[in-house]
């Protein structure tokens, strides 16, 4: 029986999950792949603490370089996350002719093209199913199952932490901070949770999905990114009264051969499938020209879901190694051609919340500025006052150009009758 030797870098939650699956499903994997997977070495900063799985402690090391240099190792699994030293480890492993599996979305989004070129040059594979929505096979589906399609749009709830916070705020009236603390305790928030709540993690994942879906070289800076920190319980409540849910959406759309790429809080009407994705769950909705609308739904983080994706990549690699792997598959396409639409050029409907003095002529002033900037109001509600003199005004607009709305808001925010900066949330139909 052929033996495939693995060097595992990162003995945290997901790494432990991979070891657990390889142990518990060894017979099945041997029958399926025609080989045995053997973890030859485990690299981690901490080689002392006990983990959720037992391992032969003699294979634990802090020396990543030694493992990458080991000629007996065929595959490196990188699960430490972050840019450095993960990038150096991966590049060196690829240069040494080792195949690499990673869950590192930040690294792929920031340096994916560069790493992809190294993999290709060295005729080795780089697989990363666990980097987006962990166990949901969304990357494999874009690369294989949906390959015959031209993808027209992607809408994703791809950050469990933000979705958990928004759900808790909406359903249980929990504060933002309290919900974030729970997400940290449950282990799905990033080490630096600003990556979650500022939309950056979603943007990394949208980068990976869009690169594969549109077979297009894009840059991380092409993705307009806004997080959920601007959303208050009040906005969630007002949106609810209007029949909408607020979700942090990762959106990619083909419009007139251009590409719109954006991550931001979004009002979705309650009858939409994505409005009903709750808690830490993820969902990715992909529209192909042949399949029509497809949706992937499930937990987007966690030990076994993420490890399941890593093992799927291992099985893929084993299959190609056993059948005599020669040529590396292209990881990221390098094609250019579609223009990226700037956020100021998008057209959508908007929710706008203003805090204005409750006195005659205020609405007329606001409506006048919106009208001058070609913004048509669909509905206006004045809510009960917070304090003596000012009250929240909630407006929904018809479709408008973002540049026009921003221009109007600059003027509105400067009116003496406006007491707080306007909150704007884009609406997705
Ligand atoms: N912090 C991420 C999330 C973990 O909350 O979705 C999974 O990538």
Folded structure, characterized:
With 429 residues, the protein is α/β, with parallel strands linked by helices. Helix content is 36%, strand content 28%. It has helices spanning 13-24, 26-33, 64-69, 86-95, 105-121, 138-145, 160-172, 176-186, 194-197, 200-214, 233-241, 303-322, 362-372, 402-413; strands at residues 2-9, 35-43, 60-61, 75-78, 99-102, 126-127, 151-157, 224-225, 244-255, 258-269, 281-288, 292-299, 339-340, 347-357, 377-382, 390-397, 400-401, 418-428. β4, α4 (86-95) and β5 form a beta-alpha-beta unit. It is elongated. The structure holds L-homoserine. L-homoserine (HSE) binds at residues 159-161, 188-190, 196, 201, 300-301.
Form type: elongated
The biggest sheet, with number of strands, parallel, antiparallel or mixed sense and barrel status, is:
12 strands, mixed
Count of DSSP-assigned helices: 14
Instruction: Give the class from helix and strand content and strand pairing.
Output: alpha/beta
* Unreliable residue runs: none
**Small molecules bound:** L-homoserine
Count of extended strands: 18
* Overall pLDDT level: 95
> What portion of the residues fall into strands of 2 or more residues?
25-35%
Q: Residue share in helices?
A: 25-40%
Q: What is the radius of gyration?
A: 24 Å
Q: What is the first-to-last residue Cα distance? A: 54 Å
Oligomeric state: single chain
In short:
The protein is 36% helix and 28% strand. The chain has 14 helices and 18 strands.
